[in-house]
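ESCALATION

Customer reports they have been waiting on this structure for their group meeting. Please prioritize. Original submission:
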Amino acid sequence: MGSKERIQRLKEETRVNILDAALQIVKEEGWQALSMRKIADKIEYTAPIIYEYFLNKEAILFELSRQGYVELGKAIKAAKNKFTKTDEQLEAMWIAYWNFAFKHKEFYQLMFGVDMMCCEQKKSMPEVDYLDKLFFETIKDLMSAEQPEEGVVCRKYYTFWSIIHGLISINMVNKGRDEEMNQHILKDALKGIIKYINE
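Update from on-call: job pushed to the front of the queue and completed.
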């Protein structure tokens, strides 16, 4: 390996270390505790070195949010691919969304602003478009109209999202029910919306 490749590899490793350190701080202390100085202390670098890789804290939040959307997109796609019937695909996709929220709580909080401000630049992420498209296409497939209007599909998507995200948010701020009750509520909501779309 040449010196140029070695330098590039070391830069990428440092970048990954910065992001890993940021996530570790958040897991230990919460998003409000994250700062460039704390990240520098965690990986035993000086703060100016962190700024060589990320312009500011918002740039770190953007990259972590982007990574979260990549992982969520993979989970949703994998869930969809397990089924052939559209109604089963849609239910599995939203359950995968739910599972992601609690398995990767810190990512979800950042991505969707649960109990904190979400990353403001997420509208410019292609990963967000990919996720929306997965849901939109599946909802469109479920609808009885041959070519449903985009606005109608969008409304159905937001019906799903507002209920599932609302339930997740309630639980993340410790005001939800026990897990068994949550699963009943989640499945009742999904089956109800899917049935409504199918009619």
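Sent to customer with the following note: The chain has a mean pLDDT of 88.
Escalation resolved.
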